[in-house]
Amino acid sequence: MKFKGVHYILTDIEGTTTSVKFVYDTLFPYFREHIGELREMVNIDEVQKAFKQTVELAASLENKKLNSVDDIINTLYRWSEEDRKITPLKALQGILWKRGYESGEILGHVYADVQPALEKWCNAGMKVGVFSSGSIAAQKLIFGYSESGDLQHYFSHYFDTTTGGKREAQTYPKIAAVLELDPNAILFLSDIVEELEAADQCGMQTVQLVRPGTVAGWPRTVSDFSEIDI
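Predicted structure:
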């Protein structure tokens, strides 16, 4: 599929570069299995910040008061089971996944068509970035410890929920502003129609990745990165 006037490619991860099965069958279970280790990590600034945010969000979103570390961990565990797109949860997942990647227990899944396309685009002078609901740290881990090797050098920017929700139209102009590009010069890749709709509203070009298990629901679809012609 041919796209014209594209100067930047912005890609989702889950269901786009990476199998949904890997996220749900490997990453999420690893986090829940090791979540108790956070009790010994409360002196780390990032953990303290995420715990504080968890307490605040539990109060504002669920009207619940968390009185102890166990309360916090139990809430995070439940949010993980519910696959909540909550910033402190994503930050703590990244911290624990880092241990798994560095120990060799986890190797990031990336579809075989991704690395050759990244290589082709970058060699042609195209820049590529990532926008995922997973934390930026978690994004870098998937690509840094991937089955295809370290792919981090292909990406110029990483964006997560600290920029805004992926299904919220107001998020995408913020990304375009950071990239200093007209939205129409950016091609956004995702498997989720609601995310594509949000990006489309701000003028970005869009295409849906229809990977195994994904249902086509967008006017422009491809089955893998090799079908994207810039």
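Summary: The beta strands are 8-11, 127-131, 155-159, 186-190, 205-209, 221-222.
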